[in-house]
Automatic annotation (TrEMBL):
Gene3D superfamilies: 2.60.200.10. It comes from Dasyornis broadbenti. Residues 1-53 form the Interferon regulatory factor-3 domain. It comes from the Eukaryota. GO terms for biological process: immune system process. InterPro entries: Interferon_reg_factor-3, SMAD-like_dom_sf, SMAD_FHA_dom_sf. This is IRF5 factor. GO terms for cellular component: nucleus. One of its GO terms (molecular function) is DNA-binding transcription factor activity, RNA polymerase II-specific.
């Protein structure tokens, strides 16, 4: 993710998780042809990608985490706030010219 944000890799890292039920996978068939395929998108990974790609359109204070263990939720929210502050401070730094 950091390499993508710095422009060192052209594509963002994948964060989706695909699960296949009832069949062997991976095999020659594409996942769209499987009987039961589930795509899991971890909210934390999506938020980080949006934050570092500049697509985050809301405040880090409004992250809607719903985690059953309150201590874990509090720690994760604090970590997201720290990451958001780091991202904001990085955005203020002069960017090197390409080339």
């Amino acid at each position: 993710l950091i390499q993508f944000q710095k422009g060192q890799t052209p594509t963002p890292p994948p964060f989706e998780i695909f699960l296949c039920f009832g069949e062997e996978w991976p095999d020659q068939k594409p996942k769209e042809k499987k009987l039961i395929t589930v795509q899991v998108v971890p909210v934390a990974a999506r938020l980080l990608l949006e934050m570092f790609s500049g697509e985050l359109s809301w405040s880090a204070d409004s992250i809607p985490l719903q985690i059953s263990h309150p201590d874990l939720k509090d720690r994760m929210v604090e970590q997201f706030k720290e990451l958001h502050q780091l991202w904001q401070s990085h955005q203020r730094l002069p960017q090197p010219l390409p080339g």
